[in-house]
Amino acid sequence: MFTPPPSPRPYTSREPPAPVPVLPLEKPMEITESPLPHHSSFPTHEGKRRTGRRYRWAVLVAPMLLVLLTAYRGYVSSATVSTSTLRSLSWRGLVAEGSTSWSSHLKRSPEPEPQAPSPVSQSSSSSSSSSSSSSSSSASSSATSTASQTIPTIPSSPPVLPTPFPQPFDDNIASNFTSTTCATFFANMTSATPFRSCRPFSLLLTSNAFIIAQTNLTLMNSLIWGTCNTNTGFDQCKANMGWFASALKTACSQELSSKNAMATTTLMGLNSYSVMHDVACLPDPTSNTYCYINAVRNSNPADLYYYNLPSGLTIPKNAQPTCSSCSKSIMGKYQSALADPVLGPGLTGLKTAYPPSAQLSAQLCGAAFLPAAANVSSAAVAAVLRGPSWALIGGLGVLVWMLSGSNGLNLLLPLSWS
After folding, report:
1. DSSP string spanning 253-299?
2. With 158 labelled, which of 68, 212, 377, 379 sits at a CA distance of 20 to 30 A?
3. Helix, strand, coil proportions of the chain in percent (round to 5)?
4. Residue ranges of the DUF7729 domain (predicted)?
């Protein structure tokens, strides 16, 4: 049977649908600029006068603050140097300065001729004056005899060393401590071979034999050679001194807390063994002599003060150093030691004495005298200005207050855009 095809679909329109009308806004949007506030950013006449008065005060106060801060800085710098306990590392220096804390060093000094006994009614001031004059004459005669000696060169072969070799603390030190543990520690340390065999130059100021030997340059030359050439290796000696320093902190904790001079200076000497060994063994390349022997022979004790910095003693402000190449090398050794991450933290005395001494050396010998003048200058300035830093902040705060405020800012804003 035949099946007819399906009927075609009805015709439909292909036109797009009518657009939906968009209703207009009830009220057109208005873009308006917000008006300026009632008060103008430009100052009024009265505001200008008030700001002008503040500005004039700031101009007057700023120079005064700078003058006061500069004067305070000079005062602190002077006080830091002048109040330090100054002691030269020499027998002549101890006598000339009339040292009392190290009076044991004077026991073997040359004594004056005997004099007739003075009346009992003589005053104590007259007695002390006589003692002072005898010490001065003794120091003068010692300086004259030393200056007349020829400086020996560095030995090319091992010299004959004195036996026993001068050792630190060769006097009775038992009465200098309050705790038995500290006294026992010093007794054990000074008799121990690991300590004695290293001959630490950093502690030889406490030796009577070493101080008196400075009147004989030949003997002193042998002693310096002996401190630079020990049977115990240098690295082993550094380890030994580090061990003794650690043990001292434990055994003498009470003395360190009370600032006992013997305990504190010994700790500084143990910690500075390495740098003081290098400083003591410095040669003068122009004469093949030890720099320290040159300083001992010089009638001017200023160069000897450089050897006291690790003990926390600054160079006196009235000193007149010779600005020698030896002193320059010493300052270079000190700066390198302070920059050493292992050695530097323990050099507490050198940290205190180096900045003002370096600043004074730069003033007297020129900036080229120091290995890195910029670093030394910043360190010295930081040390001297540590006190008035709050004053500087306060002064800046006053200036900011004088120039602040709405009127002051309104005056400055138009000027900044002009």
Report:
1. HHHHHTT-HHHHHHHHHHHTHHHHHHHHT-EETTTTEEHHHHHHHSS
2. 212
3. 60, 0, 40
4. 164-371
